[in-house]
Write a structure and sequence with these properties.
The protein contains twelve helices and ten strands. By secondary structure, it is α+β, with helices and mostly antiparallel strands. It has three domains: 2-191, Regulatory protein AraC (Jelly Rolls, Sandwich), CATH 2.60.120.280; 194-242; 246-305, Arc Repressor Mutant, subunit A (Orthogonal Bundle), CATH 1.10.10. The strands form two sheets. A six-stranded antiparallel beta sheet has the order 1-2-9-4-7-10. A four-stranded antiparallel beta sheet has the order 3-8-5-6. It starts with a helix and ends with a helix.
């Protein structure tokens, strides 16, 4: 019992220190890039509406507040007692659900390099190089004292910029090691292993991102993954929670929304630019994802962001 109590006290202590450091190095709400290239700090003094984007591989540790991330129809909620890992590019929606001016949402976000993960796999645990069944490319896991300790030490370097070039890579490597040693570390491990089914799905994802405007050709994607089309569908859904077609639609619709918001472009023109042949189909699928047809959604979004048309 004493060990459990000490562990819980350590977690709380690290969370408090991490919160103090993030408050110190964030000037108001928003995403704050840091002198450590892979690290950004996020602060919000209020809850938010869902935001849609394609997230690259990353680790998110929340020291205050909480957030829910939606991947297809699945939801993942995390806060100070847990952390989130995304192991490949995934289109998700994210919403801060717990935050206030007195206790703002604070998040430590670290970009993950799968090549570094592979190097660690080869050095630390060669036995785990066996191929395992594909798993969801996004997961939430309980925080540990060693992981939070490393996150605190990395954030402390912001107070001593001259130490960053030497020490930051070592601590980032330690953080990655801690994630790989977690209960769901196999998700990241399999994504990094060249030739694994998860890694081959990552290759398909990269191709879909490059060619999202083009008609979907399952045979070509299957050939790129060295899989049969039926096997591609099965593994792709296991990793991303959606089919290749659904993934492509998410990419198209999120890019369309970005264009509509940034360029004040015509909805029909944007539909063609992102690969749709039918503006009516585009409008239906847009409303299904974002809750409103294009023009109404962009009007609402501008109001939320405080922008004038």
């Amino acid at each position: 019992m004493r060990d459990l109590s000490n562990h819980a006290n350590s977690l709380v202590s690290y969370q408090k220190e991490l919160s103090l450091l993030m408050e110190k190095h964030t000037d108001g709400d928003g995403i704050h890039e840091t002198l450590i290239p892979s690290l950004s700090l996020i602060r919000s003094s209020k809850t938010t509406f869902p935001s849609f984007s394609v997230h690259e591989p990353e680790l998110c540790i929340v020291s205050q507040g909480s957030k829910v991330v939606m991947l297809a129809d699945e939801s993942f909620t995390y806060g100070p007692s847990s952390y989130l890992v995304i192991s490949l590019d995934l289109p998700v929606s994210a919403q801060i659900i717990e935050a206030s001016p007195d206790v703002p949402y604070l998040c430590f976000r670290l970009k993950l390099n799968l090549k570094d993960a592979l190097d660690l796999v080869n050095e630390a645990n060669p036995v785990s190089r066996k191929k395992l069944r594909s798993k969801r490319g996004l997961f939430v896991e309980q925080s540990t004292a060693p992981l939070l300790d490393a996150a605190v030490r990395l954030t402390r370097l912001l107070d001593n910029p001259e130490d960053i070039p030497i020490l930051a890579p070592l601590i980032v490597r330690e953080i990655l090691y801690r994630v790989l040693q977690g209960e769901q570390g196999d998700v990241l491990r399999q994504m990094a292993l060249r030739g694994s089914s998860s890694n081959r799905i990552a290759v398909v994802v990269e191709q879909l991102k490059r060619e999202y405007m083009e008609p979907l050709r399952i045979d070509e994607l299957a050939a790129a993954a060295h899989m049969a089309p039926s096997s591609l569908h099965r593994h792709f859904k296991e990793v991303t929670a959606m089919s290749p077609l659904q993934y492509q639609k998410q990419l198209r619709l999120q890019e369309a929304r970005r264009l509509l918001l940034s360029e004040s472009a015509d909805a029909a023109d944007v539909a063609f630019r992102v690969g749709y042949e039918s503006p009516s189909q585009f409008s239906r699928e847009y409303a299904r994802l974002f809750g409103l047809p294009p023009i109404s959604d962009i009007t609402r979004l501008r109001e939320q962001l405080g922008r004038v048309p």
